[in-house]
Amino acid sequence: MTRLTMDTGSYVDVPKDLLKEIERLEQLFSTDTAKLKQITEHFVKELEKGLSVQGGSIPMNPTWVMSFPTGYETGTYLALDMGGTNLRVCQITLTEQKSEFDIIQSKYRLPEELKTGEADDLFEYIADCLMQFIETHHGDTGRLEKLPLGFTFSYPATQNYIDEGILQRWTKGFDIPGVEGHNVVPMFEAALARRGVPIKLTALINDTTGTLIASAYTDTKMKIGCIFGTGCNAAYMEDCGSIPKLAHLGLPPDTPMAINCEWGAFDNEHKVLPRTPYDIIIDKDSPRPGQQAFEKMIAGLYLGEIFRQIMVDLHDNHDVHIFEGQDISALRKAYSLDSSFLSAIEEDPFENLSETADLFQTKLGIHPNTHELELIRRTAELIGTRAARLSACGVAAISKKKGYTSCHVGADGSVFNKYPHFKARGAQALREILDWPEKTDPKEEDPIEILAAEDGSGVGAALIAALTLERVKKGNMHGILHPENFR
Ligand code: GLC
């Protein structure tokens, strides 16, 4: 079996003060089965609240994606992904072969200063990247027919239409004034027009919806799409009859509608999540205090910061002797450690944690002793384990709400793909929450299996553009603001 946590028996020589801290942290970060079940129960209620007319703290945004793909979609589409760190532009051709596609793509760095600058600068930069992509792959743009584009905008946005997105609030460290509460599509389209980019926006999508649809394109058992990356969120297919806040539209109750949960906002009221003093500081110092409570315990943006807060706190605590007499100024810099720093600690294969020691030395100018290294490793494990176990509560809650006892969940994002043991820890938590018996054969599939997703913001965005064009062709105009873009 994979070793998911350190064997506590190995702390025999650790000095008392450090041992006491390890035990305190273990208490603070523990998420036992009963707690996970309690969180999941509350989560189910909050998902329902979000769909109701009154609404709740989880936005549960309808996305106007109104069917799963069949695998027989065809055509060529552009896809643009504005993530937290990069811009990615793709051209996707859905081929005649069932569930197959060709893709070409380019990545552009998203300069850090654009994340807190002016909206126009951001959208013009994006338009320039798109233009460069089209010129590279299509040559002269003068005579080109406008290409349909699926734009993956992975921030909470109300979508009264599939080609509209009113930003509810920035997440993932973005803080551009004048965008919250506004529709981002006209800002984007104005930039395209100013730059003469031959593109028509067909669908604005969230990365989770893209992940759900892309994964379902190749695997019909896929029912939930999740992102565990810089942010953390999920999407699934609901029936319109279970979405009271859409009742005024009079859609047939069995009409499917993909919901972008925006579950990062779960428990903003702090009713069930086991918050530590470190979570409270992170929230207080963030650009949006009081928001994204769940996300702040799970997402890659925060894992390294939680760890950093703990280390600084222990150093400053006079009852604890850690990094004594050393200059920890590098460690004092907020957000200086990202989740890859924690990954590296958890991945250190050596008994004496020599790689962790090297990492502290090169990155922070700190020389931890043997016992400090053990505390460091255990702290990383606790943070990583809590993140994986809490994330399973969200998956369990959607499954319970929908009555899924067996399905696949498509997951993407740097934490899911790269953080050591994240998958195994999440699967273990799901087993505990849903009371599955232990496996008899290790190769056996779990009833609900979280698997690596297909490319949501590329293939998923293209598919959603295709599905939307197709339903418009059949006369389903629900949630379409600009029919002219669909002809
Ligand atoms: C944040 C965003 C959300 C996105 C998630 C994963 O939670 O608000 O829209 O899906 O990150 O990228």
From TrEMBL:
Catalysed reactions, as listed in the record: a D-hexose + ATP = a D-hexose 6-phosphate + ADP + H(+); D-fructose + ATP = D-fructose 6-phosphate + ADP + H(+)
InterPro entries: ATPase_NBD (IPR043129), Hexokinase (IPR001312), Hexokinase_BS (IPR019807), Hexokinase_C (IPR022673), Hexokinase_N (IPR022672)
Domain of life: Eukaryota
Enzyme Commission number: 2.7.1.-
Biological or metabolic pathway of the protein: Carbohydrate degradation; glycolysis; D-glyceraldehyde 3-phosphate and glycerone phosphate from D-glucose: step 1/4; Carbohydrate metabolism; hexose metabolism
Single GO MF annotation: glucokinase activity
Pfam families, per database record: Hexokinase_1 (PF00349), Hexokinase_2 (PF03727)
GO CC terms of this entry: cytosol; mitochondrion
Keywords per UniProt: ATP-binding, Glycolysis, Kinase, Nucleotide-binding, Transferase
Domain Hexokinase C-terminal: 223-467
Top EC category: transferase
GO biological process terms on file: glucose metabolic process; glycolytic process; intracellular glucose homeostasis; mannose metabolic process
Domain Hexokinase N-terminal: 22-217
SUPFAM superfamilies: Actin-like ATPase domain
Similarity section: Belongs to the hexokinase family.
Name of the molecule in the record: Phosphotransferase
